[in-house]
User: Which sequence fits this backbone?
């Protein structure tokens, strides 16, 4: 097992032992994938560990649950505080935080209303998702033969477990074909995103990403890239992207909490640009890592400190 377990997991308002965070196999979520979740990074900064865009992630968790008529018995502040308490309790510095809201054990049918809502939060040390070199050298990817679901089938704006059956098909196919990751098209054949990250291209100095109507997850890193482009005076637009526009891009990169900003050097074995990390990708990475690592002033209030000095408020929350 490569997962590095920690001491504590937060469950329904209290910290329990990692090994005690178990559910019954007849829980609704096991048969019917009825959970929503988040992936959040806590970075090591000179001021101590800090969670990146915690509020936005917890708001998306609440939104995902709302779409599925799941009532989380904690509000935004309580969820944010729980994440901070958890990282602190585990004594971690940089880590990945995984809140999960699931439908538990109560009834065996599809109707979820008789099953209790359980809220969990775990965190652990998790390095570079696609490997250490990927962030510098880029990755080779392929367009998947699996598409994203059509609108009005499974909501793509919810970060829900069920969506990841589709993501796993895309990812497995990519691995079998020797790629680091797969890109999914939507039901109209237009580009959406990677199996677990948003996708951006650069063409003639403009950064372009598919609109939410193409079905990508409304990524927090996606929003971060948009904000950084604005800050750095890089033109940016949301546009429908036909598959072949990927091949003709000057630069291509993935953006997500796990992959952070990872360049793509080829698609379907067609070289993108020079086949190396492009200059705009590089400058966005530099800015992103300076901000997440606390090396530059937190001008957007994106970092929530885990260790708060006595008497001080928590920034960014
Ligand atoms: N798309 C998918 C399918 C994802 O799973 C993720 C990761 N949550 C993303 C995009 C990126 O979202 P974020 O930047 O909020 O991590």
Assistant:
């Amino acid at each position: 097992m490569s997962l590095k377990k920690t001491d504590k997991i937060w469950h329904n308002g209290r910290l329990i032992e990692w090994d005690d965070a178990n559910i019954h196999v007849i829980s609704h979520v096991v048969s019917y994938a009825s959970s929503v979740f988040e992936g959040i990074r806590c970075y090591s900064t000179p001021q101590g560990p800090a969670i990146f865009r915690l509020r936005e992630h917890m708001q998306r968790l609440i939104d995902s649950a709302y779409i599925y008529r799941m009532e989380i018995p904690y509000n935004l502040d309580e969820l944010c505080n729980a994440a901070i308490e958890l990282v602190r309790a585990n004594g971690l510095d940089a880590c990945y935080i995984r809140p999960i809201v699931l439908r538990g054990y109560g009834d065996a049918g599809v109707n979820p209303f008789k099953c209790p809502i359980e809220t969990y939060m775990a965190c652990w040390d998790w390095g570079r998702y696609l490997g250490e070199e990927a962030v510098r050298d880029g990755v080779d990817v392929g367009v998947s033969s699996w598409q994203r679901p059509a609108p009005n089938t499974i909501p793509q704006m919810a970060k829900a477990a069920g969506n990841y059956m589709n993501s796993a098909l895309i990812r497995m196919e990519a691995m079998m074909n020797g790629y680091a990751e797969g890109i999914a098209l939507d039901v109209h054949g237009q580009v959406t995103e990677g199996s677990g990250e948003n996708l951006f291209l650069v063409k003639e100095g403009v950064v372009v990403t598919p609109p939410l109507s193409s079905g990508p997850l409304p990524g927090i890193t996606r929003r971060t890239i948009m904000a950084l482009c604005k800050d750095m005076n890089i033109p940016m637009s949301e546009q429908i992207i036909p598959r072949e526009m990927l091949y003709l891009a000057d630069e291509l990169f993935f953006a997500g909490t796990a992959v952070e900003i990872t360049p793509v050097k080829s698609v379907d074995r067609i070289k993108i640009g020079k086949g190396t990390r492009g200059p705009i990708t590089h400058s966005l990475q530099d800015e992103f890592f300076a901000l997440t690592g606390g090396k530059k002033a937190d001008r957007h209030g994106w970092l929530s400190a885990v260790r708060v000095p006595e008497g001080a408020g928590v920034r960014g929350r």
The chain is about 25% helix and 25% strand.
